[in-house]
Amino acid sequence: MSAITTALTASFFTFAIPSSISLEQVTKDVSFLASDNLKGRGNFSTEINQAADYIAKRFEENGLVSAKEISTQGFLQKYQITKISPKELSLVLNDQMIPSENITMASTVANFSWLVENGITTGEFKIHSIGKDDDMPAIISSMNKQGGKHLALINSAHKDIFKRYQQYFKKERTKLTQTDADKTKGGVIVMTLSDTMTADVISLKVLGINSISKSELTNVVAVLPGKTKPDEIVLYSAHYDHLGVSTTEAGTTDKIYNGANDDASGTAAIINIAQYYAKQNNNARTLMFVAFSAEEIGGFGSRYFSQQLDPDKITAMINIEMIGKASKFGAGTLWMTGMERSNLGEKLNLVLAKSGKKIYKDPYPEQGLFYRSDNATLARLGVPAHSFSSTQLDKDQHYHKVSDDLSSLDLSSLHKVIEALAIATNPLVDGSVTPSRIDVNKVKSKGVIY
Ligand SMILES: [Zn+2]
Known about the structure:
By secondary structure, this protein is an alpha/beta fold.
């Protein structure tokens, strides 16, 4: 790890230490989750289920209970993922067959066909022409946010960007399986390089075929029911999935993405904070602990979770991400994303100030970290939802590498960060503090098609 100044670390050792969070237990949990046996906890692997069972067992042995209304089986919350792969796409425009190198699509539906004959349109879709001076990525992105069915006729001036979209859309895409209620969300974007203007489309025939398969993933959810404010929920979360086993990383015999820091460290944190508050046994609010899957492939675990309960009941979300190493502010210190979006950080810092500590502002704003973890999904619903981290993202050599294993962690720093979070969040737990909500109009929305 990088050098730490003594001045910064010194104050931390004066911090009051809650007795029931032990370095030994934290080490045990993170070691199990990051072990080679779990093969990098890849989504859809058998090993990720072993991780889920372990987390559930740890919750259970500490006396937490399942969240009955939102769990499917004990502590497990299972949900469906849809995988979509493009198979065929053809486009005939004004009697000209468009060559396949000039067309691409992103679709959430299996099959679709659109027709324009003699100016009469069959099928509900819109035709847009994107001229050479238009901001093509912005237009495509707004279609993606809106959903619905779109054909974009893109001026050849945008050829290079078009090719990038084409590369991206070629790949299998993963989506949260939609419930019947939100079947209307999603849609299709077909893009073609063509200088034809919308008004000049006389005849058109589009045919798209995708292959679709479904698989199951699991979140782990546990609860400590609130003693006096049971309807108010304080949510502690981390993701327990990681990247699985490498098929490409060359020059090394190690192929396992252990994800010790990302995010076995955060998962160990929520387990040990759960244990800490279970022992205290005096939480006014309901404490909910969630280990999400699918964070690394699009955040579908948190998306599904957020649709199962009323977000207005969630007082705050403490999402813990990559806390296994000393931050740039010293060992045992941490920072949070989106600090300016609610007063949660300020409230937590009032507690920490008593011991001369604080949670820092995200020192890497250019990295867009607020949007790069599960908190963003809940923030879009107004929850004061932030990620807490300590990794030096500008320098870290192990991020999303097979070398993110146990030996790269600073376990003592990890332990101290977990203690700091347990103490800092106490006023949320005892019901004395309610942070301000996040303004949903200031949170960027996500696309619904790709
Ligand atoms: Zn990651």
